[in-house]
Write a structure and sequence with these properties.
- The structure is a single chain.
- The protein is of the alpha/beta class.
- It is built from four helices and six strands.
- A six-stranded mixed β-sheet has the order 3-2-1-5-4-6, with helices on both faces.
- It starts with a strand and ends with a strand.
- 26% of the residues are buried.
């Protein structure tokens, strides 16, 4: 069985302010870059608290939507477009928990017949992720 790893980061500010901040914050850019280049098979995405996809590399969308998927087709859209209402609400609740306590979480599940492990970190400018060893949910 193939295992794919994904990382999602949840910003802590209004997403339009966050995008402006991330473009001008060297520490955030370096942290994001490190996540992207740390493992070429890792999908990375930045999700606003409302579920809007602010950033994603092609790999994250290939993992969840198939080999022909590209980031350009999803960035700027809201995840509620492809999740059921219950699944979207569950994910947004988990993101809110991460925003509040700062602890990373790791999720494992089956998506389109493949095991997917996602690690979710809160990203704040100038601060490393709060937990190096995320809790597995």
């Amino acid at each position: 069985m193939n295992t794919h790893h994904t990382q999602t980061v949840a910003p802590t500010a209004n997403h339009s302010e966050f995008v402006e901040t991330m473009l001008h914050d060297d520490q955030f850019v370096h942290a994001l870059w490190d996540a992207v280049i740390g493992d070429p098979m890792t999908g990375v995405q930045v999700v606003a608290p409302d579920g809007t996809i602010l950033y994603g590399n092609d790999q994250i969308f290939r993992i969840f939507f198939g080999e022909q998927s590209r980031a350009a087709d999803y960035v700027g859209r809201n995840a509620r477009e492809w999740y059921s209402p219950d699944a979207f609400r569950e994910r947004m609740t988990l993101l809110q928990d991460i925003l509040e306590d700062g602890a990373a979480r790791q999720f494992r599940g089956i998506y389109q017949g493949r095991q997917v492990v996602s690690t979710v970190y809160r990203v704040m400018a100038g601060k490393p992720p709060a937990a190096k060893t995320p809790a597995l949910l």
